[in-house]
């Protein structure tokens, strides 16, 4: 006959057990902390920023802890604005628009990541992986 008895039988813990309550509370606290941390990171690095073809930030510079000087382009014209925590001031309209001096290979992390994932950023790594794959067979 087949005997299926186990000496170490795991019973579910009840909520009356103090260690179970503490464990649940700490897990909930950890999840809430991760949510707030992700919200802070998204706000800090302006992840939710959606570009528009009518309004574009050309350049930006921090002037203090909560102050910025920005050049925005609206309707083909560029304007210099000062941004603080409480207001936005128009400082000047630029007579000569700033040019975009970015190289053809952009420094944008999203673009570089997409190129890397496609294997186009580091062609030597892609060819090395292909060679390694053919050697394994």
Low-confidence stretches: none
Q: Compute the gyration radius: what is it?
A: 28 Å
Briefly note the structural class of the backbone: alpha+beta
Largest sheet entry: 4 strands, antiparallel
Average pLDDT, all residues = 76
Return the string of H and E elements: HEEEEHH
DSSP strand content: 15-25%
Number of strands: 4
Count of folded domains: 3
Number of helices: 3
Characterization of this structure:
- The chain is α+β, with helices and mostly antiparallel strands and 137 residues long.
- It has 3 domains: 16-49; 55-93; 103-131, no CATH class.
- It has 3 helices and 4 strands.
- The protein has helices spanning 18-44, 109-118, 123-136; strands at residues 55-62, 68-74, 77-83, 88-93.
- A 4-stranded antiparallel sheet has the order 1-2-3-4, with no helix packed on it.
- The protein starts with 17 loop residues before the first helix and ends with a helix.
- The mean pLDDT is 76.
- Its main location: membrane.
- Keywords: Bacterial flagellum, Cell membrane, Cell projection, Cilium, Flagellum, Membrane, Transmembrane, Transmembrane helix.
- Belongs to the FliO/MopB family.
- It is found in: Cell membrane; Bacterial flagellum basal body.
């Amino acid at each position: 006959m087949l005997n299926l008895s186990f000496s170490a039988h795991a019973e579910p813990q009840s909520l009356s057990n103090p260690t179970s309550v503490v464990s649940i509370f700490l897990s909930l606290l950890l999840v809430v902390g991760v949510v707030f941390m992700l919200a802070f990171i998204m706000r800090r690095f302006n992840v939710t920023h959606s570009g528009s073809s009518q309004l574009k930030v050309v350049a930006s510079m921090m002037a203090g802890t909560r102050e910025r000087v920005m050049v925005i382009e609206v309707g083909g014209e560029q304007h210099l604005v000062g941004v603080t925590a409480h207001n936005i001031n128009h400082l000047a309209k630029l007579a000569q628009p700033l040019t975009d001096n970015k190289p053809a290979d952009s420094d944008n992390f999203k673009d570089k990541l997409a190129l890397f994932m496609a294997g186009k950023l580091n062609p030597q790594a892609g060819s090395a992986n292909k060679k390694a794959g053919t050697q394994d067979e």
